[in-house]
């Protein structure tokens, strides 16, 4: 495997926000577009030589191909290692946690949040810092400034990584670890919330419906709600991530979470409903025959936060 330096020139419109850069998928697929932006991220953060990055995304179209390119570029730029969610999957909260748990130097998250996915829809890429949070404005400005004068990018020729197999391998001189994208995050949830109390609720007959909207939270919901907390199978609907989100729009609102709303307003509605967006960092709460506005759900969570072990004042 050989490191190749490819001559390039700036591409207009690569100005990231705190949620990264979002464009149409076919724009990201244009020759050199992704590569220019990734190299600008690496250069903008001071290089990745000797550093370790966490990488994953919401499973949308082009997610796996883009991760392969990013890994080859990270190796060519001297990164020490990359920790990647199996199948290229990592929700944004899970990626944040993984960066912190593993002491990574930051991470690249491939997501366009609640925007639809597919070859004719949207794609996105953002950098999160060593604290797991979104890049600061200062960092995004450095990345943007690099996009304005970039003249080359580095990439490893050859060397594909099997994203579907757990374990450690190498790509050139860089280590690549494929990890269970759910395990560390589920362990965090067990520390933050009283799983025994919630499990007892389900044992007592409490029923809920969680709509993952064919997006990234499906595997997390299956593991946490149905496996660890004991909710009945079928509690999670649309729980398998799809490159085009099942042809839908992973925005948790009454319009796009129509299936959930139909369940919650039916004669056999469960006690509680919820849906999450494409990358798992926003949600919608629904009661039986009752839509709860985001501000009200946040107010309830804040008011009762002391009941959750991870947020209690004591």
The gyration radius over C-alpha positions equals: 20 Å
Task: Give the overall pLDDT as a whole number.
Answer: 95
| Biggest sheet record | 7 strands, mixed
Q: What is the highest CATH level, the class of the largest domain?
A: Alpha Beta
Strand content: 15-25%
Instruction: Please give the order of strands in the largest beta sheet.
Output: 2-6-5-3-4-9-8
The H/E string reads: EEHHEHEHEEHEEEHHEHEHEEEH
Integer count of domains? 2
Number of strand segments = 14
Backbone shape: elongated
Distance between the termini: 55 Å
What is the CATH topology assignment of the largest domain? Alpha-D-Glucose-1,6-Bisphosphate, Chain A, domain 3
At the fourth CATH level, what is the homologous superfamily of the largest domain? Alpha-D-Glucose-1,6-Bisphosphate, subunit A, domain 3
Q: Uncertain spans, ≥5 residues at pLDDT below 50?
A: none
Summed up, the helix count is 10
Helix content estimate: 25-40%
Protein described:
- By secondary structure, the chain is an alpha/beta fold.
- The protein folds into 2 domains: about 1-180, 3-Layer(aba) Sandwich (Alpha-D-Glucose-1,6-Bisphosphate, Chain A, domain 3), CATH 3.40.120; about 185-305, Alpha-D-Glucose-1,6-Bisphosphate, Chain A, domain 3 (3-Layer(aba) Sandwich).
- Helices cover about 30% and strands about 25% of the residues.
- The chain contains 10 helices and 14 strands.
- The chain has helices spanning about 25-30, 35-45, 65-75, 90-100, 135-150, 185-190, 195-205, 215-230, 260-265, 295-305; strands spanning about 1-5, 20-25, 50-55, 80-90, 105-110, 120-130, 150-155, 165-170, 175-180, 210, 235, 270-275, 285, 290.
- A 7-stranded mixed sheet has the order 2-6-5-3-4-9-8, sandwiched between helices. A 5-stranded mixed sheet has the order 11-10-12-13-14. Strands 1-7 form a two-stranded antiparallel sheet.
- α3 (about 65-75) links the parallel β3 (about 50-55) and β4 (about 80-90).
- α2 crosses α3 (about 65-75) and α2 packs across α5.
- The longest helix has 14 residues, at about 65-75.
- The chain is elongated.
- About 45% of the residues are buried.
- The mean pLDDT is about 95.
């Amino acid at each position: 495997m050989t490191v190749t330096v490819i001559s390039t020139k700036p591409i207009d419109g690569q100005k990231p926000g705190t949620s990264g850069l979002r464009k149409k998928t076919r724009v990201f697929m244009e020759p050199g577009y992704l590569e220019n932006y990734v190299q600008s991220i690496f250069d903008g953060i001071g290089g990745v030589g000797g550093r370790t990055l966490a990488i994953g995304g919401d499973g949308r179209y082009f997610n796996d191909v883009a991760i392969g390119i990013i890994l080859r570029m990270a190796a060519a730029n001297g990164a020490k290692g990359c920790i990647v969610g199996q199948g290229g999957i990592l929700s944004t909260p899970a990626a944040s946690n993984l960066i912190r748990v593993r002491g990574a130097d930051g991470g690249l998250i491939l997501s366009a949040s609640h925007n639809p996915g597919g070859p004719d829809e949207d794609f996105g890429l953002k950098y999160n810092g060593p604290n797991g949070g979104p890049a600061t404005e200062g960092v995004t400005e450095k990345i943007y400034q690099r996009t304005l004068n970039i003249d080359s990018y580095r990439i490893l020729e050859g060397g594909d990584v099997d994203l579907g197999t757990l374990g450690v391998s190498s790509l050139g001189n860089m280590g690549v670890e494929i990890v269970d994208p759910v395990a560390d995050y589920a362990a965090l949830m067990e520390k933050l919330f009283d799983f025994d109390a919630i499990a007892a609720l389900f044992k007592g007959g409490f029923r809920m419906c969680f709509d993952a909207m064919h997006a990234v939270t499906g595997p997390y919901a299956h593991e946490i709600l149905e496996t660890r907390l004991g909710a009945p199978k079928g509690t999670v609907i649309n729980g398998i991530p799809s490159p085009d989100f099942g042809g839908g729009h992973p925005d948790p609102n009454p319009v796009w979470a129509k299936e959930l709303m139909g369940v919650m307003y039916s004669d056999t509605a469960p006690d509680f409903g919820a849906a999450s967006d494409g990358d798992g960092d926003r949600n919608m709460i629904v009661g039986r025959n009752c839509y709860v506005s985001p501000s009200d759900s946040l107010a309830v969570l804040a008011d009762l936060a002391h009941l959750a072990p991870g947020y209690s004042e004591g």
